[in-house]
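User: I'm writing a short report section on ligand binding and want a predicted complex to refer to. Could you take this sequence and PZK and write out the structure as tokens? A short remark afterwards would be nice.
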Amino acid sequence: MPDAVHVGSGKVRELYALDAERLLLVASDRISTFDVVLPTAIPDKGRVLTGLAAFWFARTRALCPNHLLAVRPDGRSTECRRLAMLPIECVVRGYLAGTGWKDYRAHGEVCGHRLPAGLRESDRLPEPIFTPATKAPSGHDENITRAQAAALVGAERFGAVERLSFTLYRFAADYARERGIIIADTKFEFGLDGDGRLVLGDEALTPDSSRFWPADQYAPGGPQPSFDKQFVRDFCELTGWDKTAPGPELPSTVVAGTRARYVEAFERLTGIPFATYLADPNVVLS
Ligand code: PZK
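Assistant: Sure. The structure tokens for the complex follow:
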């Protein structure tokens, strides 16, 4: 990429500067589990996530402006508006899982939200809750209170990102639920454009930034299977791997099954055959 300067790395994505106003976000086929990136890639995973995020960006534009400018013909790279990113992760939880469940079990509350007694792991919450987190350089984001988040971005901006996060989550969760996928929780990242307006950035509403659960298997009272990564997790548990890097190589059966789950999520949510996306990624934008 001769005209792009590398400016950042995520766990499985890379970020390049195209010019003063534009970035290129490239999603690889790498997969992480138990916080470790595995040595084996899942073919087309980056394209599935890029296509899904672009689909959601196109469908939520009226709810909230976003950074997407174009999807490149490779299907895995998007040109984005450069923003001044806010220093908080905007997490919305509709169900009790992950650190939300851990914090609830330990303290009866999550990020200062007092929750009803007697909830079980993976229960649906009476109302979605906004549970901001800090962006720790370690990659281990820490839940913070509303007051801490408001101190980081300003009270008025905090109110605005909370409201936008709820609106986006409700729209996507309702849409996905009708297509057999529960979006248990999700993380948004917002930034400010040159005019100081709030803009949705990063990737949004993908299985890497959210918990996707198969709705037909939903059974609260314990952990839920992951829509996309369950074959990988099951395999990793079987190997006895201690969950420190490097992770195990995945057998081709696990790779194929996992690829099929990503493609299934894409097709269920977009209603578009994945082959159609590969032939012309712009199909997700109309
Ligand atoms: C930005 N990240 C995190 C994500 C990475 C790093 N539109 C934007 N404007 C300015 N900065 C960012 C974005 C976006 N999105 C996002 N860091 C900076 C990140 C993915 C891959 F390497």
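A remark for your report: Residues 8-10, 13-15, 23, 25, 67, 80-83, 85, 191, 201-202 surround PZK (CB under 6 Å). Residues 28 and 170 are 28 Å apart (CA to CA).
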